[in-house]
Amino acid sequence: MDVGFIGLGHMGSGIAGCLIRAGHRLVAWNRSPGPVQALVAAGAHAARSPGEAFDTDVVFSMLARDEAIEEAVIETGALDHARAGLVHVNLATVSVAFAERLARLHAEHGVGYVAAPVLGRPEVAARGELNVIVAGAPDAVAKARPLIESFSKTLWPMGEDPQRANVVKIAANFMLASAIEVMAEAAALGQAYGVAPKDLLDVVTGTLFAAPAYRTYAELITERRFEPAGFALPLGQKDVRLALAAGEAVNAPLPIANLLRDRFLEAIAHGDGDKDWSAISDVAFRHAGLR
Amino acid sequence: MDVGFIGLGHMGSGIAGCLIRAGHRLVAWNRSPGPVQALVAAGAHAARSPGEAFDTDVVFSMLARDEAIEEAVIETGALDHARAGLVHVNLATVSVAFAERLARLHAEHGVGYVAAPVLGRPEVAARGELNVIVAGAPDAVAKARPLIESFSKTLWPMGEDPQRANVVKIAANFMLASAIEVMAEAAALGQAYGVAPKDLLDVVTGTLFAAPAYRTYAELITERRFEPAGFALPLGQKDVRLALAAGEAVNAPLPIANLLRDRFLEAIAHGDGDKDWSAISDVAFRHAGLR
Amino acid sequence: MDVGFIGLGHMGSGIAGCLIRAGHRLVAWNRSPGPVQALVAAGAHAARSPGEAFDTDVVFSMLARDEAIEEAVIETGALDHARAGLVHVNLATVSVAFAERLARLHAEHGVGYVAAPVLGRPEVAARGELNVIVAGAPDAVAKARPLIESFSKTLWPMGEDPQRANVVKIAANFMLASAIEVMAEAAALGQAYGVAPKDLLDVVTGTLFAAPAYRTYAELITERRFEPAGFALPLGQKDVRLALAAGEAVNAPLPIANLLRDRFLEAIAHGDGDKDWSAISDVAFRHAGLR
Amino acid sequence: MDVGFIGLGHMGSGIAGCLIRAGHRLVAWNRSPGPVQALVAAGAHAARSPGEAFDTDVVFSMLARDEAIEEAVIETGALDHARAGLVHVNLATVSVAFAERLARLHAEHGVGYVAAPVLGRPEVAARGELNVIVAGAPDAVAKARPLIESFSKTLWPMGEDPQRANVVKIAANFMLASAIEVMAEAAALGQAYGVAPKDLLDVVTGTLFAAPAYRTYAELITERRFEPAGFALPLGQKDVRLALAAGEAVNAPLPIANLLRDRFLEAIAHGDGDKDWSAISDVAFRHAGLR
Q1: What is the DSSP letter of A277?
Q2: pLDDT of residue D52
């Protein structure tokens, strides 16, 4: 199949690699040329514009911010170059407001639109073992499904309205940030009593919270290993902002998201804006006079 | 070995059963006589007073509230009946202030004191597969260890100061309550967008949060199965109160615990005081106009 | 002097009336024609477009939302019709981001720009006794000052950067909303002990908090007089949103604003979106099971 | 009239002075003898025990903490020395739980009990211009009223149940602490935009918030004049704790009190425990990276 791909960051490159290995003809575009060349070496074709990537059967995009999608897909007029029957699979975590707008815009251009935000870090993407939350019109999802399966472990179908997949993804990231915060508070409490963060978090992640998310972040918090950033703090801040905006649109208060919002602001105000988002854990320690 | 046991609720009875099956001579006391008779049928001896249970080699106590321990152990003068060399293993979640007082009091009476709060529900206790957080003087811990092992899967040593084990237990329960709250907020957000709580929580507990705590409580929240109470709401409230008190004593703010405190108050104010503590999840839905 | 005026809501009409009474030639524009006719009867001239109101010596605008200013002033090209030496005095509470953009845009068109958000309700505006927070280039402020004085009791100068006046106004409204919330919490606490809200709030507003803001809102809260809306709940919500956005831009957490944000969402979710913003006080009572 | 007085701190000494000047025979007791001697010089009689002060017609007490009252009044058996018909007027801010216990205890001893917590600082007390919140049985209040009037500007009657006066006083102090916090957040926001705290707070305390409480604390915050402590930070912390405990007893959440609780903890953790309670304002600035 002819497959387009837009946005070759760490996540995008890994996923695009899976699609090539699955035997598809990949037409790739990226704002900066470096990642495209790497992919061309693996067999991809370089697109000269986003529109060229849209002249395929299915086009994927993986762009971190709403504005990046707006620039690459909307402002370049890529939708006008869409091949008949094209389905656009948006892998990114976008705001629910933007998700709605994208769905409408694609409908107007007769292009299928599937929201397919992913759970997993770059190395998981490269191995083709992502969890993918999928929502869109049944025929569009059906067309994209075999391609999505080439880089995922599990597909989680969320119905026809693309916005629904985004809400679930936003909720998942909100829960991740919350887990960081609650581990930080618990570990700061322990440390105030002389219990090392590692000792305390080993107990909980070895028992009730023996889940990947907790284990990964317990380690980062314990060792204060915030650099290099696995997931940059401003991206985490963006996701909390998306959760708050999603809640605001439907009058759903999210008090823990409010707290997280402030943790990110304070972390940035104290110079941690370039670190991993788990660096917000320092705030709880600092408030208790432990930093 | 002669083993005393005080406090035969659901947890205590299960643990005491393990100790009998391990071949020990058990001297059991409980405020109400019913649970003692059940245990006598399994081979235990009924103590006429807490003091009699203290006339053993190792005595365990499992009493839910500080006041209950105060009444049974301190006010009855049980410590004055302690056999020479006795070690008292306190399995309950007590406040850190009371933990300190108990340690001091036992030292004054020449009785060993080990804090050994447990993680796990009654059915896990009955199977002898608890996780036990242990802190106390090395010789006291050494004497109690084989007995503790008879009802536990893993011992988590936390050093010599009994208070440390209590802080870790309190932190673990605080994290559990937080997990309930964050799932509730996430699920309420999803529902406001038409995503069923089960669909949303299935994704997160099937991926990032594939941990026992999340799975158990996701199910209760999803089905609103708050009765009968597996862990009664006022006990959960007590544990959050312990966390806040522990934080206050060392000037460690715990903003999520503050939020939880209010969730419990509001749940009780709305008539849910007799339900499972996961009923606090209704608060997030109600605030969003979804109940 | 030739004075333009854009935006004739309750506040704007009162202020415009003062300017006419002070002897100025007023050129007024409003989206809907009704308020303009009323003003024409008092001696004003009706502008056919915002641009006509900009063909004056000083033009005032009083539009409740950033979007309304964008439509009336920017999208209509009104700035292109500015008379040489024109100063635009923006009386509205705008976001700090938009304040910055407006200042830049006016500079590009060679038009003076003064931010002059006002404190006071419509009846105070009509009497010409507003408090006005003023920031802008000294010469622009000097030109506008006599006009501003015709409808104000006190001018509060805040320096040259227009944004500074907006931050102060946003902070003042944030403090007002906070006063409502804290009175609500205190009154709900009292009521739970059988003390009528009026009895409790009479004590505090008769002593420590004998300030206009507290007295006005204590009365509304006490009598639950939320309709008709003196200041509509969505406008209060907007102001809290502006405070949060202002804080976010400079990494300043505002935890009470977070709380207020949720109060507004919950009030709207419970059907109070058309009431006075003091209706958020019901939330504290409802949480305590008192509604 | 024979009047007893227990507790001669800054507040108590000022009030006792008013009672002497009003022509009453004052029998004064204080834990440390210094303040008693000063009062004797003004005409008072020194009591050798609290009981002696209870052998009068009306006895006042002004002791800062529940524990101090417990020691001086309950543990010394002072109630057993009460003259027939004695009325005890408790001027202190006590917890609602202790207020209830005191009322019961006095009833058992046939002693009248009036709760009369005061609003005002020491200099106001010395001038006899306090605001006094009064609750108790009508005949007890009637007997004490002329005495209370000798040191107060206004009496605020709150009915028969003494607890009610305490709730109102606790609510008032909670509102004061909240005012400090909200001014701190607003001023920190302003400072992040280059507006001096004094400039911003002058606007609000000169307009909407032209109340004594705001003016006094705006000045302390602006000048960071936290030493010497006018009202010590731990006493403010105690009052917030009383508010939370009062709320907990009746299931009334007080989210702003939660926030304040954390501000006090953090201030103490950062070494400000000996300062004026307005020093909690530094926390908002520090979180924004401004300290």
Answers
A1: G
A2: 97
